Every structure is written in C-alpha cells, then in structure tokens.
Amino acid sequence: MIDTHAHLYDEHFTQQWEHAYAEMKQAGIEEVWLPNCDQESWAALWNLYQGNTSFCKPMIGLHPTYVKEDYLLQLAFFEKELANKKVLAIGEIGLDYYWDVSFKEQQIAAFEAQCHWALEHHLWIDVHCRKAYADLLAILKKKEFKDLTGIIHCFSGDAREAKTLVDLGYTLGIGGVLTYKNANLHQDIQDVPLSQLVLETDAPYLSPVPYRGKPNSPAYLGFIAQKLADYREISLLELVDITNQNACALKAYSNFE
C-alpha cells in the first residue's frame, strides 16, 4: 500500500524510527509520501528522505496555516530549493479558514504562486483545504491553472464539490475520517470513481477507528483501505491495487522514481 500523505518527519516517528519503520513495513506499506509544512520542517523532511529514498517521497511547499508575515521569505526559500532538488509534488499547499482568516489574502497569494511552480516544473499539487472550498474551486477553475492536477488531501467537501474537483482532474485523498461513525464522507464520495481516489493517513493526525484519539501511523492505512473496500463492495486486494495504480500515475506524472 502507498500512503500518499503522512508527516513521518514528526518527532513522534523520528524518535523511534527503526520501530516505526518496521511496524509500517509489517503492515504492508510500500511507500509514504511526505508533505511539507514550512521552512523549519523542510530540513527534517529532506533528511528523512535522503536516508530512506525507496520508502519516503518528498514534497515541498508552504502549508496555509504557516502563511504569516514572513510568507514571502519562505516562498523565496522554497523557490530556490526547487531549482536544485527533485521532488514528487508541490505540497502541502492550499487554504485554511478554520481557525483564523487574518492572513486569508496572503494564503490565496501563496497558494497561487505555488500552483505556478507546479506548472513550471511539471509537478502536481497536494492540496490542503479546510472551510475554504468556494475559494479553492474559484482558483482551480482559473484558465491559468487548467493544466494543474493533483490530490485534494483529506477531502472534506460535499458531494457537489467532490464532483467538481474530479471533473477538474483532481484525485481525492481518503483517510481516517472515512472510518468515523458520524462522518458523511462515504456519502459525499459515493459517486466518485475509484480511479480518482487514493489512500492516506495524515499521520500522526486523524487516526482511523480503532485507533481514534491516539497518534496515527501509516501502519494503520489498512483500516482505511478495508473500510473503503467494504463501502465499494470489492475485495481489499482489488481496492489496494486500484488506489496504488492511481498513486503511481501521479508519481509518473512528476517523473519521480
């Protein structure tokens, strides 16, 4: 299985890396894709990738909740890094209006700038969106971004938004929320073809049942996969094969091994 979104450079994993790695491999995890947050997290992410190039795949980007007064300096740093480092995608980028909208305009500017990077470098984007789907869709529908593609990480929109994003060519990242008793995610994505879905954990966040409330791990990806297979009434093996193929298509798009 491929976990398309997990923060393995978090201290929760790095302080016990050998144990965590063994646990993930035993659970059948083949690869884990690493979304970046800000300049501070980049060094830890890149170092982890360098020591585990066959298992970890790096993304680069400025997460919307880290867009503050210094966002232009951070963008300048990442743009320089892009000039001499090969990455899988631009991410985790996007919009987040959940806690604070003080930097809403700066978030939009940072997101659009990084979308242009993706086009320039022929990379896809890994998109974080929370309470901001109207603005996200307005941006992605712009003519200048018509050739963009990527993953909508931890999709949390409604069925209409899911259809719009899929019609625009995006893949939806499905994680632990799918296993929550009162979540509507299954209903919202029930018409999305499996060819437009990938699996993720967002570890160490959003643990699936039966680990909800505890730190998440890519080792728990199987619980998400099984739940999605049950909803779609197919075997776990078939579900994993399809979602892995979807992930590999994105990797090929970026020409990343």
Please describe what this structure looks like.
There is one protein chain. With 257 residues, this protein is an alpha/beta fold. The protein has one domain: TIM Barrel, CATH 3.20.20.140. 43% of the residues lie in helices and 14% in strands. The chain is built from ten helices and eight strands. Strands 1-2-3-4-5-6-7-8 form an eight-stranded parallel sheet, sandwiched between helices. Strand 5, helix 6 and strand 6 form a beta-alpha-beta unit. Helix 4 packs parallel to helix 5 and helix 9 packs across helix 10. It is globular and about 45 Å long. The protein starts with a strand and ends with a helix. The model has no long low-confidence stretch (mean pLDDT 97).
Helical segment count? 10
Distance between the termini: 16 Å
Strand content range: 5-15%
Residue runs with pLDDT of under 50 for 5 or more positions:
none
Biggest beta sheet summary: 8 strands, parallel
- Percentage of residues assigned to helices: 40-55%
How many distinct beta strands?
8
CATH class: Alpha Beta
Mean pLDDT: 97
What name is given to the CATH topology? TIM Barrel
One letter per element, helices H and strands E, the order comes to EHHEHEHEHEHEHEHEHH
Provide the spatial order of strands within the biggest beta sheet: 1-2-3-4-5-6-7-8
Query: What is the domain tally?
Result: 1
Shape: globular
Structural class: alpha/beta
Over the alpha carbons, how many angstroms does the gyration radius reach?
A: 17 Å
In the CATH classification, which architecture applies? Alpha-Beta Barrel
Tell me the name of the CATH homologous superfamily: Metal-dependent hydrolases
